[in-house]
Amino acid sequence: MGAQSSGVGKPFRVLIAENHADLSDSLAQIIDSEPDMRCVGQVASAAAVLPAVQGSGANVLVLDLGLQGGSGFELIEGLASSVPELRIVVFSGLCNDVLIREILNRGAAAFVTKGCDPNVLLEELRRSA
């Protein structure tokens, strides 16, 4: 499993980039309830993502494509080149095959649709870590 890649007994670190505070808080609670992962921060704008990644030591980023102040596609590309060890799991309400293919081609590790069972997101986080 992916959790093993971050060290035995040491939870992997997840940063949430989501502009809806209630959803971001809910995701943080779900992540923190798992023994093998920990939420290390929450940001709501594209400009805050890179500094938060660098400051938190996050292994995995949960990224909403609709962040304020930037293109989700450009953010994925920028992070993939500047922080290649970071795994990006896109979490979006927008969903079609062309979009998913484009997200993965730009450097994201996975795509999860908002509204899915939380266990689907947790499994993708583990797979990506």
Tell me what you see in this structure.
This protein is of the alpha/beta class. It has one domain (6-121): Response regulator (Rossmann fold, 3-Layer(aba) Sandwich). It has 5 helices and 5 strands; from the N terminus they run βαβαβαβαβα. The protein has helices at 21-32, 46-56, 72-82, 97-105, 118-128, and strands at residues 12-17, 37-43, 60-63, 87-92, 110-113. The chain has a 5-stranded parallel β-sheet, with helices on both faces. Strand 3, helix 3 (72-82) and strand 4 form a beta-alpha-beta unit. The longest helix has 12 residues, at 21-32. The protein is globular. Mean pLDDT is 90; it is low at 1-7.
| CATH evolutionary superfamily | Response regulator
Q: Please indicate the count of domains.
A: 1
Element string (H = helix, E = strand): EHEHEHEHEH
Shape: globular
Low-confidence stretches: 1-7
DSSP, total strands: 5
**What class, by secondary structure content?**
alpha/beta
Q: Helical residue percent?
A: 40-55%
Radius of gyration: 13 Å
At CATH level 3, the topology is Rossmann fold
CATH architectural designation: 3-Layer(aba) Sandwich
Largest sheet: 5 strands, parallel
- Classified by CATH, the class is Alpha Beta
Terminal Cα span: 9 Å
The portion of residues forming beta strands comes to 15-25%
The average pLDDT is: 90
